[in-house]
């Protein structure tokens, strides 16, 4: 029995060692293949027209981020203030910048933490701003149905991002490259 336990421990010690570099890489790959284009396409809907659209969010940005305030303003974005403009712009930029940082593995822990905050705010906006409280959209934990958009899917998103917060970007990343370049300077 002792030999079996020793073999088990030796094998899974190697699996754990491989997992230290494979798990972050796999998490970034899964993020890139499932969520990168989701967030970038969402960000594109928030940009205004032309080059100056980078500084002038579309009505889509306001309707997604501030649905009740925009409705109260009669869908006239000029009646919304600088705060609304700044939040819409920051949210739009976050949908482009944070996913890119995660995919290339630069400032991965901070970008992943930022995305967790983004997904949380996105979910709360869907619930309280857009009234997404039906069973199919909101869902419920431990309800045997794994297909609700908010409590089921986004819980997986947050778990995936949490792996990156805890483990970092892994060996194949800009973070790792920069860390190796900084090692001689620190020593």
Automatic annotation (TrEMBL):
Membrane topology: Multi-pass membrane protein
Matches recorded under Pfam families: DoxX
Subcellular location: Membrane
Record-annotated L27 domain positions: 1-19
Keywords assigned: Membrane, Transmembrane, Transmembrane helix
Annotated TM spans: 21-40, 82-107, 155-174
Keyword NADP part of the UniProt annotation: no
Name under which the protein is recorded: DoxX family protein
């Amino acid at each position: 029995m002792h030999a079996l336990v020793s073999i088990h421990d030796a094998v899974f010690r190697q699996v754990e060692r491989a997992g230290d570099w494979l798990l972050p890489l796999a998490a970034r790959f899964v993020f890139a293949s499932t969520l990168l284009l989701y967030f970038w396409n969402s960000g594109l809907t928030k940009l205004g027209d032309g080059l100056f659209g980078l500084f002038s969010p579309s009505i889509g940005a306001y309707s997604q981020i501030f649905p009740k305030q925009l409705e109260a303003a009669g869908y006239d974005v000029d009646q919304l203030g600088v705060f609304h403009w700044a939040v819409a712009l920051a949210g739009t930029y976050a949908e482009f910048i944070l996913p890119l940082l995660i995919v290339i593995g630069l400032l991965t822990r901070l970008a992943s933490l930022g995305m967790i905050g983004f997904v949380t705010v996105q979910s709360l906006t869907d619930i309280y701003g857009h009234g997404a409280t039906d069973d199919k959209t909101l869902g419920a934990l431990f309800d045997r149905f794994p297909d609700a958009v908010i409590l089921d899917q986004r819980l997986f998103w947050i778990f995936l991002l949490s792996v990156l917060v805890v483990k970092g970007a892994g060996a194949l990343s800009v973070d790792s490259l920069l860390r190796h370049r900084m090692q001689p300077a620190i020593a």
